[in-house]
Amino acid sequence: MLKNVSEVMTSNPITVKTDTPLREAIKILAEKRISGLPVVDDAGHLIGIISETDLMWQQAGVTPPAYFMIFDSVIYLKNPIEYERELHKALGQTVGEVMSQKPITISPDKPLREAAKIMRDRKIHRLPVVDDSEQIVGILSLGDIIRDMAQVES
Length: 154
Known about the structure:
Blueprint: E1 10-11, H1 22-32, E2 36-40, E3 46-51, H2 52-60, E4 67-70, E5 73-76, H3 80-91, H4 95-98, E6 100-101, H5 112-122, E7 126-130, E8 136-141, H6 142-153
Antiparallel strand pairs: 1-8, 2-3, 3-6, 4-5, 7-8
Helix pairs in contact: 2-3
């Protein structure tokens, strides 16, 4: 039997807001043993996601882009805007400064197979589940899918 996302997702996920201190988000991730948190606005609409990958900038830091100078001009070999974004993540103190914006989402009535394909193709570990009004209603993680597969095999 083909399942929908709503049958496997984690309902009512823990969420944070953009002004949540980064230390608080890190504590939630560690204590709950989860790898990412949806970020919502005051109305509960999904606006981003903060993950372990986003937090690695804090520990690893960033490398300035390579460049060379010709006369009085600087020519970057890598987009300096990307460097600024990475630097912002490395120095951020709130969730809003570090989160990934515009995450890929899925609706709860979509087939689980479709969600798994999106996660595989995009190489993502979690997929926020939103309703028609962009309210977060759940989150589907790789762990949720694997646990469901284990139940089917039993």
